[in-house]
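Give me the fold.
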Amino acid sequence: MDKRLFGVTRNGEDVYIYTISDGNLSADIMTRGATLVRLIHDGTDIIGGYDSVADYEADTSYQGATVGRVANRISGAAFNIDGKIFHVDANENGNCLHGGYSGLSSKIWDVVKYDGKSICLSCFSPDGECGFPGSLSVRVAFSVKDGYLAIDYAAVPDKKTPVSMTNHSYFNLNGLGGDVLRHRVQIFSDEVTEVDKALLPTGKRLQVTGTVFDLRSPRKVGESLSDDFDGYDNNYMLSGDEKKSFEVVSASGDCLKEMRTLAAAAVVTAEKRRMEVYTDAEGIQLYTANAMSGKPDFKGGIKRIPHGALCLEAQLEPDSVNRGRGLIGAGETYRQTTVYSFSRIPS
């Protein structure tokens, strides 16, 4: 088993990295933000990340982090529960993004269980943190097996509150350094969430037929780029029929293995490898790092460039809380599971 001190936060908190591995797949998980720092398949690191805790603290792109309480955007940084208005952190242009200023992505998580092939972590969000009602006990479990990485989430509040968690890893299946414009993306979805210029949902869903959002058949990321479209940052409502069962480590209870049946969500194919995504979430956000640039550099001094990676974030539809959805009652358990499965493409 592999555990090592990664660094110390500006507040003096120790941050550790734990490695889980099985066969040709290994992952480094950092206790700050329950963050994927490395994901190595057949010797190639295929996700973005940084060389120091200070770089993660300076980062604003949520590289590899577990985000929440509510992933994506809450319009106006406010919502109504049973007639009461709650105001949450307005950390992006007057809206709440990925849980606010001190969301799950910036917390130091405790390790509940670690065995070399899996790790289960926990954290606690007190009542009123970032403006959200109720305290929230949260767990996330990462496990690797047979070429796939499984991420299982569980959360229990003591008051009714919105919860929608995801992982925010940035993938380049060829390894970081180039762009992903030649990556072919397929998403099993007939509808995309309509958004305005601020990327806030309008309350409508659009049929993808005849649009740049039609990814039902594999399409190169760069194929749709134009002066009017600089890339994807959109939530797809999933409708895939194919299902597959995976052995995962549960984030709830005693962090034991269990079988989870998940629907096919997306496939990404590059020159060297293929990634399949399965989830029980209703949607998935495709983000093609359209504006990624500047400091800090990625691991090893690799420069961050626009379209240098892509994200596939399994989630509840953005801003669902303002449509009366995504609320978890006191004592109820939120669950979500996503699997990223990898295979080599023969030369």
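The chain has one domain: 2-344.
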